[in-house]
Amino acid sequence: MSEQAAVSGWRGYLPAGVRPYSEAAPLAALFLGVSSALPLTMIAATLTTRLAQAGIEKSTVTAFALTFLAYNFKWLWAPIIDVVKLPIIGRVGQRLSWLIVTAALAMAAIIYLGSLDPAKDIAAVAVAAIMVGIAGATFDVVIDAYRIELLEPEQLGVGSGMSQYGWRIGAATAGAVALVVAARTNWSVAYYVCSLFALFAVIVGLIMREPSRRQEPMALKGPLEAAKAYVSPLVEFFKRSGALIVLLFILVHKIGDTLANLTFRLLFEDLGFTNDEIAFYDVSLGFFAFLIGIFIGGLVYSRLGMKKAVMLSLILMAVSNLSFAGLAAAGHSNWGMAGAIGFENFASGVGGVAVVAYLSALCNLQFTGTQFALLSAAASILGRFLTGTTAGSLIEGMGYVNFYLLTTVAALPGVVMFWLMIRWGLVDRSLGTAGSVHADEKEAETSS
Predict the structure, then answer these.
(1) CATH topology agreement for domains 21-217 and 224-443
(2) 3-state secondary structure string across 308-321
(3) In terms of pTM, does the model score above 0.85?
(4) What pLDDT is attached to residue 443?
(5) pLDDT value at residue 434
(6) 97, 103, 177, 243: most buried, per Cβ within 10 A?
(7) CB atoms within 10 A of CB 156
(8) Domain boundaries, the chain
(9) What pLDDT is recorded for position 158?
(10) Which residues of the chain have pLDDT under 50?
């Protein structure tokens, strides 16, 4: 029987390389990614644009980046989601019940944020944005756990890629919808409409039900066992060779990129770009450039290996900030905006594959969920904190051109640190069991 005949239905007519993406679990991961992007999109670029159009000063606008910190600390309460069974609704399953509840909380927080007027009560908007951040981060923990447990081991690679595509689709679409709806009605209606994007995850959960790979946690007999289970993932990681140096790299490698990314909308507003122009270039063109970057990143990773791919992506992400210094110097230029947005999103796509693969390789398979949440949170916390506390003042003090030159310089320590980690052998020695398996497979492929 031929390979095509062995695959039933319409999937048999797809190219062999495409078929894994058409399976139920990876497709579910795609739509889970769409919902995962919603809360962060509503308090990131979308809220930045809304505040800027309301006449809020730059230092206050950039301070709202602090609302993202909930995503950096979500690992603190992730164990609760793993072990606490919700009353009544918990009968449908641990993951599905939490998925439904956290989706509802995220929608409610977004609707509340949309109902407020920044010009009248900026403090209430700040509180609402924090609520969206906390609800969204919790929703994110559930989505990540649901996706990982839904995918079979051989689907994890495809599923992770589909999740990244879904996240970008969700962020781009929700961001564009918010701008277009706000331009034709008002910002409140825009937020109400965008809140519906959370339903994609709920629909996936209702169709796919409780993940078959879901393992019920062991009953904790007393506070001592509970405390031990809580800290085990951290203890295991810090016992590894060079763990502190690896953690320091993770903390600093995205400072320049995060500082730049969270201020783009301020630049666009000050250069006089309209909502429609921002929607086309920043959202639509950026979306396709990011997809191309993911594809190229996959090729680079498979051909050059993890270490060279990560190093290349770090350099690309650092250099991409220079394009916005050029745009700031050029002024209102559609071609300049297209080039800057295209290059930045392409670099982010390449980096998204390589760096996320490295963070995944650092995980111990016993604690994948908790350790990945911790490592991914650490990857952006410092940059977000600096953006919220200093970015607006730096822009007002030195101007956009010098600010983006500064973000390029701020990205260089991460490049140097990773190069030193390669030279010292720390990249290989610090890998968890997930990365060790990957390395063994690569070695087998090379010797065959």
Answers:
(1) yes
(2) HHHHHHHHHHHHHH
(3) no
(4) 39
(5) 56
(6) 103
(7) 18
(8) 21-217, 224-443
(9) 66
(10) 1-5, 437-448
DSSP H helical ranges for 185-242 = 187-194, 199-208, 223-238
Instruction: Please tell me the distance from the alpha carbon of residue 111 to that of residue 105, in angstroms, as a whole number.
Output: 10
Residues 77, 373 contacting (CB under 8 angstroms)? no
Torsion on CA atoms 13, 14, 19, 23, rounded to nearest 10: -60
CB 443 within 8 A of CB 289: no
Report how far Cα 41 is from the mean position of its chain's Cα atoms: 10
- 21-217 CATH fold: Growth Hormone; Chain: A; (1.20.1250)
Say what the pLDDT of residue 3 is. 45
DSSP 8-state code for residue 118: T
How many C-beta neighbours within 10 Å does residue 209 have? 13
Burial zone of 87 (CB within 10 Å; 0-12 exposed, 13-18 middle, 19+ buried):
exposed
Nearest to 90 by CA among 100, 80, 104: 100
Tell me what pLDDT residue 103 has.
96
Q: Which amino acid is at 387?
A: T
Residues near 410 by beta carbon (within 8 Å), at least 6 away in sequence: 255, 256, 259
* Residues of the chain by 3-state class (helix, strand, coil), percent to 5: 85, 0, 15
Q: State the pLDDT at residue 439.
A: 40
State which CATH number among 3.40.50.2300, 2.170.150.70, 1.20.1250.20, 3.20.20.140 fits the domain covering 224-443.
Answer: 1.20.1250.20
432, 364 contact by CB (below 8 A): yes
Ramachandran region, residue 148 (left: φ > 0; alpha: ψ -120 to 50; beta: rest): alpha
Angstrom distances, CA of residue 183 to CA of 195, 254, 301, 417: 17, 33, 41, 45
Per-residue DSSP letters for 343-380? Answer: HHHHHHHHHHHHHHHHHHHTS-TTSHHHHHHHHHHHHH
